[in-house]
Amino acid sequence: MDSLNLIESFSEFKEFKSIDRVTMMNVLEDVFRSMLRKKYGTDDHIDIIINIDKGDLEIWRNREIVPDGEVEDANTEIAYSEAIKIEPDFEVGEEVSEELKFMDFGRRNILSLRQNLISRILELEKDHIYAKYKERIGEIITGEVYQVWKKEVLVLDDEGNELILPKSEQIPSDYFKKGETVRAVVAKVDMRNSSPVIILSRTAPEFLERLFELEVPEVFDGLITIKKIVREPGERAKVAVESYDDRIDPVGACVGMKGARIHGIVRELRNENIDVINYTSNPILFIQRALSPAKISSVEILEEEARANVYLKPDQVSLAIGRGGHNIKLAGKLTGYEIDVYREGAEDVEDVDLEEFADEIDGWILDELKAIGCDTAKSVLELNVQDLVSRTDLEEETVKEVVRILRAEFE
């Protein structure tokens, strides 16, 4: 029974391929010596021989031969009369080596020993996983969805290690089923209750950067540098790129022929709109590029306040702001300036056509307002909220949001 347990233990340990042979042997010897010290008080007189591959382990106790009647410690000394029973040629002062059988240690000690071995090896395995993924922070991992919960998804890597993809690190339109393959970047590695916890992310800017490296060889080779990435996951992203080789068009290389390269990234990010922008150290030009597709008339930089006043023609304002304000918000993050948009010649503009708000207000809402004769912003603002609710099929909260957006244009 004891030999079988030991061999089974070795078979289990061999499955931990991440632990090298020397470390494994040191752990095994250390655990066995700990047991021997408890039993004999010392292990200085004991040799341990281990063969991991065969599951063999031999323990030899060495005792000095002393004259009969002078044995003070039976663990380290043996009487001459006992020694010659083992080998008739022995003499006083020589050393006798005897193999200790596992049966001598008792069933309880053997089971305790096996548990200690498993515990030590599992600790080593956990430390290895922690160190391995700590070095891989910022790298893309491909894994298989093993379990889907409300607040997180459990992913297994190719070695069966458990990785966590929290809901907060998923793109809003992500939907996973068990068995699917998922790609994400390693965002964080922690130790909780002595176990490594690997957190993945699909919303981090690093995930988009790694995808560019996979899809665009020039980025991977360092010919094109990604200066900065800002994202509203699932909605929009802006990527500033630069090439130190005048022969390479960084934006064209990233987009690819007919958008072939960027389309692969967009699909992975659930149709997130990606604007690739040529980086420049000229802040005015950089702001103009960051606010694309809007055409900017002029930019005024207030360096001490880190603000930029941007002036546009009336029909370009909604393009600069973007649907839900994503465009101007991301442009601000990319350039590092707080951007304020001003309508060029605003003092001469008495009203604004509702169509100019198409990027901020859904089309069907605009149609509802037009159906009651409101074609301009001021014609809507002339009515109070209750009138608008009663004359249209719009909810009160929707009407309040529309009014807020329209008023902002005249402030």
From TrEMBL:
Keyword flag Secreted: no
Residue intervals of the S1 motif domain: 138-203
Primary location: cytoplasm
PROSITE patterns: KH_TYPE_1 (PS50084), S1 (PS50126)
Assigned keywords, A-Z: Cytoplasm, RNA-binding, Transcription, Transcription antitermination, Transcription regulation, Transcription termination
Keyword Nucleotide-binding listed: no
Gene3D superfamilies: 3.30.300.20, Nucleic acid-binding proteins, NusA, N-terminal domain
Subcellular location: Cytoplasm
Domain of life from the UniProt record: Bacteria
Stated role: Participates in both transcription termination and antitermination.
Family named by the database record: Belongs to the NusA family.
Quaternary structure note: Monomer. Binds directly to the core enzyme of the DNA-dependent RNA polymerase and to nascent RNA.
NCBIfam families referenced in this protein's UniProt entry, alphabetically: NusA (TIGR01953)
Protein name, UniProt field: Transcription termination/antitermination protein NusA
